[in-house]
Amino acid sequence: MKNNPTIYEINTRVWIKRFSSNNGNLKLDQVPEIFWKNLADKGIDYVWLMGIWQNCSGSIEKYCFEDYLIKEYKSALKDFKHEDVIGSPYAINNYKINPDLGDLETIKRLRTILKKYDIKLILDFIPNHFNAESELIETNPEIFLNADESYHTDDSYTFYIPYNNKEVILAHGRDPFFPAWEDTAQVNYFSNAAREFMIGNLIDIAEICDGVRCDMAMLALNNIFKNTWGGVLKKMDYAKPETEFWAVAIQLVKNEFPEFLFIGEAYWDLEWNLQQLGFDFTYDKRLTDRLKSGNVRGISEHLTADSLFQTKSLRFIENHDEQRIAKELGKEASQASAVIMSTIQGMRFYHEGQFEGKRIKLPVQLGREPVEPPQPCFVNFYNKLFSITKHELFNNGIWKQLKSEAVGSSDSTFQNILCWQINYKDEIRVVIINYSQEESRGRIRLDVKGDNEIQLFDMLNDQLYIREALEVREDGLYIELQPFHSHIFSL
Known about the structure:
Elements: E1 6-11, H1 12-15, H2 33-42, E2 46-50, E3 53-55, H3 60-63, H4 67-76, E4 92-97, H5 104-116, E5 120-125, E6 129-131, H6 136-139, E7 146-147, H7 149-154, E8 159-160, E9 169-171, E10 184-186, H8 192-206, E11 211-214, H9 222-235, H10 245-256, E12 261-264, H11 271-276, E13 281-283, H12 285-293, H13 296-302, H14 307-311, E14 313-315, H15 325-343, E15 347-351, H16 376-389, H17 392-396, E16 398-401, E17 417-424, E18 427-434, E19 440-444, E20 453-458, E21 463-468, H18 469-474, E22 477-481, E23 486-490
Parallel strand pairs: 1-2, 1-15, 2-5, 5-11, 11-12, 12-13, 13-14, 14-15
Antiparallel strand pairs: 3-4, 6-10, 7-9, 8-9, 16-17, 17-18, 18-23, 19-22, 20-21, 20-23
Helix pairs in contact: 8-10, 12-13, 15-16
């Protein structure tokens, strides 16, 4: 595997409709191969088909039309219709393929197609919960977090009675900092039966794909689970396990599938904890937030973290949970942030629509998207960027952050400049970004040999610069960049 692989997220249930015909939607293995070839040509290594599992259509009317959700639907779709709501892909019935997308044989055929283009398949694993009306509540009741009637009486938003069965009280899934997700039923990670059941699902999933993106992975950690559900766990006499679920689950899966990839959605500074438990990559939301706030010093300091942590971090500027970066930052700043995330260590994560400059964030419950014509300036930019970064140097090179220095005592704009160097065999790339709203100047010392002239070709802007090696080495390469402009130099 590459040191710095790339992954592309697709909102599968919506995206597949682009290939519809008079005979209805195509199945996943019938998507025109040119789509996969185009991704491969950009250097994409993994495709994450988000939302392929079966959900519960009967629960949509009950849980997916709250006022705040309807407001989001209408904001995304000006001609929103009731039937556009198809339910959350994170409130699933079970780990069976949504029949609208295909079946297990469909996935096998799709993987054969993807293998032709050296693309691997990532699917969802949703450890925290199932749908509030999942069939598993009847077939596998032992895996869910049970409570007693007093909890339902005191908090009927978090605790509910499934299927009008007044003898059973279950908890809805939740994040401890937010109200419960009412369309879900909480899995009980202090139950051995639940853990065994979820590990069994992971092993089954590993049979049909190359890795999983684990939703809200930190919620299954023992301390987090205890802090979230402590009162219920104590009253219902559930003891804290001696082992972490992820440590056991990842080891068991990798015993059978050594190359299987675990990607963890993670927050609250728990990324390192999850990496230590076996996750190959964890979300780097802190970098995303610093990029959005324009915190240049914070970005620079963040990139000084231990290299092992860096290489296991998943870098992104948008995904299905985030606002579209083109809308949030605008053209220049969003493209500068893309240069940053595409040239540092770690897994580089791209979201469907990002390459076209889409601006509308689509709620995951919707099954139809608005029409947004591609913006040529974004299409051309990403084509150019990927023509550069798909080179082996960016995948396996040695990365080193550089320092921008002041040009003069009265000019502090050098602090707006981020820069790093990547070495691979006998090739060098130097990436320089003015990540600010003002023209900025600085000097960057490069370790170049000799005293002759050197050539620096800016691959991003197709410009050649000739400089004296002695000056670049001792005084530093002089840089002057317009707001949110970048260089990617080949030396």
